[in-house]
Automatic annotation (TrEMBL):
SUPFAM superfamilies reported in the protein's UniProt record: PurM C-terminal domain-like (SSF56042)
Record keywords: ATP-binding, Kinase, Nucleotide-binding, Selenium, Transferase
UniProt protein name: PurM-like C-terminal domain-containing protein
PANTHER family: INACTIVE SELENIDE, WATER DIKINASE-LIKE PROTEIN-RELATED (PTHR10256:SF0), SELENIDE, WATER DIKINASE (PTHR10256)
Organism: Cherax quadricarinatus (Australian red claw crayfish)
Domain spans labelled PurM-like C-terminal: 4-123
InterPro entries: PurM-like_C_dom, PurM-like_C_sf, SPS/SelD
GO molecular function, one term: ATP binding
Amino acid sequence: MDSMARLNRTAARLMHKYNAHGATDVTGFGLLGHAQNLAKNQKNEVSFVIHNLPIIAKMAAVAKACGNMFHLLQGLSAETSGGLLICLPREQAAAYCKDIEKQEGYQAWIIGIVEKGNRTARIIDKPRVIEVPSKEKDGELW
């Protein structure tokens, strides 16, 4: 719930500071679906290759226990306010992640690369699953 309650104001300001090329929210099409839509609409012929999957802690185990019916590890699970997918210059991506953590106290991750391609997106065969811990506040819901 804490993740869903966050606003994108700081992230948007930092996108300008770090020269973002594009961005989308991750919602009903899952990470891969939104990455594919973003790749299709780029000025240059590029493809996105996703190496890391940030997933709320314990949800990978839940997905497995449910028979993978939501296709979470394939990047197709529908999300409710799943975060932002932002395209940044390679040399500025790490600084963006550090800056957002400094300002908000939440981590951001570099999840893949942009390469010359045919406006598609894909997840590598064995992506690294990043278990995102919940950020609970002593008894508060949000």
